[in-house]
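Weekly sync, protein design subgroup
Attendees: M.S., D.O., the rotation student, P.L. (late)

Item 1: inverse folding check
M.S. brought a backbone from last month's batch and wanted to see whether the design step gives back something sensible before we order anything. D.O. pointed out we never logged the input encoding, so this time it goes straight into the notes. Structure tokens as presented (176 positions):
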């Protein structure tokens, strides 16, 4: 009888052990991110530069604009170029079109550079703008908060009649 009880107990543990599972389980999943080159150039201040000439001194010595700040977000190094859209200002006024040349009247400079890149061709001083464009910042660092500021100086002299003179200045950021 003892043998039958012993066999029954042994059989019970054997059957119970066969249905037991190991504690814990795991799984893994591969996640792929497909990143592409990305760059954005935005203006953080007003998109219009207003320069008003009110005195004889303004005409004789020119006036400077306020600083205008740009922000670049890029996942690669970049360069910044600048150009004017036209060789002449567009004139709105009561006189015949006086044909004011942009490169003889309007100049610009980089007032501050927080891009991690280097300024090219002495743009810490005022230089004329051209329609062919110039590289002004080289090797800007990848990142999401790169900024630079520009200032303009206009010196029209006394040759041009009263009116509003307009030209578009185009900034381009390109990954390198």
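Designed sequence read out in the meeting:
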């Amino acid at each position: 009888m003892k043998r039958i009880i012993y066999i029954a107990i042994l059989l019970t543990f054997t059957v119970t052990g066969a249905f037991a599972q190991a504690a814990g389980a795991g799984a893994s999943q591969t996640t792929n991110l497909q990143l592409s080159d990305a760059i954005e150039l935005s203006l953080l201040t007003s998109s219009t530069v207003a320069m008003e000439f009110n005195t004889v001194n303004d005409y004789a010595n020119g006036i400077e604009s306020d600083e205008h700040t740009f922000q670049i977000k890029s996942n690669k190094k970049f360069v910044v170029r600048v150009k004017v859209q036209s060789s002449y200002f567009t004139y709105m006024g009561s006189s015949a079109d006086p044909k004011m040349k942009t490169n003889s009247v309007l100049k610009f400079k980089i007032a501050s550079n927080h891009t991690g890149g280097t300024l090219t061709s002495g743009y810490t001083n005022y230089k004329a703008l051209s329609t062919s464009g110039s590289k002004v910042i080289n090797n800007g660092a990848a990142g999401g908060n790169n900024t630079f500021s520009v200032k303009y100086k206009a010196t029209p002299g006394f040759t041009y009649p009263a009116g509003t003179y307009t030209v578009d200045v185009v900034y381009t950021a390109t990954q390198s």
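Discussion: The radius of gyration is 35 Å. Helices lie at 2-18, 56-61, 102-105.
Action: P.L. to compare against the previous round before Friday.
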